[in-house]
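Sequence of ABC transport system permease protein (Plantactinospora soyae).
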Amino acid sequence: MNRPLLRLALANLRAHAVRLALTGFAVVVAVGFLAGTLVYGDTARAAFYGDLARSARNVDVVVEPEAGLVTPTTVERIRAVDGVAAVDGRVIAWLGVLDRNGRLIESQEHIGYALSVPGVAALAPYDLAGGRLPRVPGEIAVDRATVAGAGFVPEGPVTVLDQAGTPHRMRLVGVLDLGVNRLFGGSAVAALSPADLETLTGTTDYAQVVVSATDGTDPAELRDRVAAVLGPGQQALTGAGLRDRLARQAAKYVDGFLAVLLGFGLVSLTVSAFVIYNTFAMLGAQRARELSLLRCVGASRRQVAGAVLLEASLLGLLASIGGLLASLVVGYGLIRGRELVASDIPLHAPVVRWPTVAVALGFGTLVAVLAALVPALDASRVPPLAALLARDSTEAGAGPGRRRRLRIALAGTLTGVGLLAVGTGLPLAFPGLPLVLGGGMVVFLGAVVAAPLLVPRAVRLVGWLPARIFGPAVRLAVANARRNPRRAAATTSALTIGVALMAMFSVLLATARDQAGRELTENFPVEFVLDRVRTDGAPSAVRGPLPAGLASRLRADPAFATVAEVRRATAPLDAGIRIWAVPPEQFRGPIRPEVTAGSLAGLGPGTVALNRQFAQERGLRIGDRLTLAPSGPLTVVALYDDAPTDGAALVSWPQFLATYGVGEPDRLLVDLAPGVSTAAGRQVIDTVLVDYPAVRVRGLADQTDALSATLDELLGIFAALLGMSVLIAVLGIGNTLALSVFERRRESATVRALGLSRRQLVGMLLTEAALVAAVGTLSGTVLGAGLGVAAAVGLIDSYGHGLPAVPIGQLALCAALAATAAVLASLLPARRAGRAPIVPALADDG
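Predicted 3D structure, token representation.
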């Protein structure tokens, strides 16, 4: 690009600084959000790595068993290796910790952990946040999160369970700081003295052995020496390798949400592209005389187009630099709001890597140039004589007949392909969801292509009744909104994107809430489920046999109508299937599963009822035979869908006794008597369970509340993220109206001279913005809700039953807020137009 065009581009940027600043701000917001997500990811990873360096500090070599534990004998062999300065074995065992109400603290089906007190202080895997480490039996130190959550106090009591489930009262002497170590998954963690470790957990061997090297010893060489003395099934790696692995494990909690953020960042950039396109299209139309004069004095089409693209490049670059600076605030804000986006991310100074800079500057500039490409080509086609023959050429229709037919054909093709993709993806359920959503986006592209043809008609339809009621000002607003279909379509499309995505996610989340609630009610037909958590070293909270006498104590209370004892066993079929049975006198009411085929009346010795999904996977039908060792072949007499337990095969009580014996129940299904409230029933159960601390209780109300809280949090996150794109679209509407006001200053002065008051002029311009916003929000709501319903139908057909849930009130609220925000964004330029003097505007020859 030669110097004259560069000077011309810079002059045009200065001449239209205010209007281009609004467009540039849209790019700043979009680029700031996109680059801010990358800053967030890089900062979170750096924070994780720095925090994990503390938990693995001074470790040069670590030894871990692939199975089993490391014995003290192996530790002594490691200690004798040349180059070892210090070695410490770390005991990690399962330990149940009770809260202040005597209930077992669980996290994701896991009980707590017991850790050893470090033998070498420099190799400690945790810090002390308060107090001291245990020195004698009876003392305990607990992690900070558990202390805060359970309400433990220093020097106060903490009760733990040994392998047999017997409670032991300890004294809290310290608080542990584990950092972001994800090894324990949020479970309660306690440090115990060596004597208590052996007594409570029965563990004396080590889950991990850490080694520090002498000065001058290379960790990699020491790792090889240590590996040479290890037994089979044990591996050694360097401390750096351990930190990298832990950092990757911890950072995966960030990656999923980071992908979501990047997706919404790209959506924001797409909306920005519409705003930029609209702005340059309007500026090009307003500057038709200026561009034609350039053609008259010798500028070629390429030079004119180049000047416009150079303006867009400079605008995109400057706005991208502003977005890069804004990304520091966005990224650090996401870290500060870590409780919302990912728990326990340590605070860290913002990290900006060169890929983030490249993405911010490159994407912002590229989007600006691509958005200005069509307006630049249109500007290059301005005839040289336009400056002499016309005052302006700002009005643009949908195009001549040939272009109109081409637009219709392209829009129809895109819509047809999109609908075909949606129809193909619907029967595939969840695997077909990308095809459904992708097809929906193609349908949306078809709507964008057809928008210049559809928006004027939609504006006329929406504005028909207000024009009849409120008179000439509204009719003028309708005419103005219809005057330039391409401009109105681009403005409307920008708002439609954000509203459509918000509507789609609202429908999907509302459907998920409805379906999950339905499944909870059907699969949780009783009010409470009780099972026992094993504390004997099981790898998770696997249900064990319930204490004898618990069922009879609950059954004797008049608050409960049903107390059913479920026995279960596992048959070695492939990965094993769970078989369940209930005594016949208890197998009634909500305990009986929902039968979808066959009948439970024929359930007896030699027969079985199967879960519907399990039968479908195996291709089994009523009358088929299924061999379950040691029962032998059983005839399928019924298929069921919703059951109060997760067993895949239901057998009769005599069949279960003959095969597995009476055993002990591992689950109690408890339903309330008529007139007894959930709170009253829970209080009775909690009173009984004081004597059984290893028994946990789950209620339908608890499950429902947890589900609602999760879905509400997701809805809040998506609403906040999609709000960014809606904000950009709203800025675009304000920008468009500001440009339109400038473009029509002589027209506004003329209608003022003919008797239109300032208030009426302002009302006309605000009505125009309201009409465009109404069309954008309505079309976005319809399109997004339709896409959400289509995706929900496909999922429901495979994973549930019923109909999609459409949150009418929520959709209406979103649409109203978006339209209101668009009108408010247009208030300033409308008031500016109303205050403009009439005579100077009439004298302006544009």
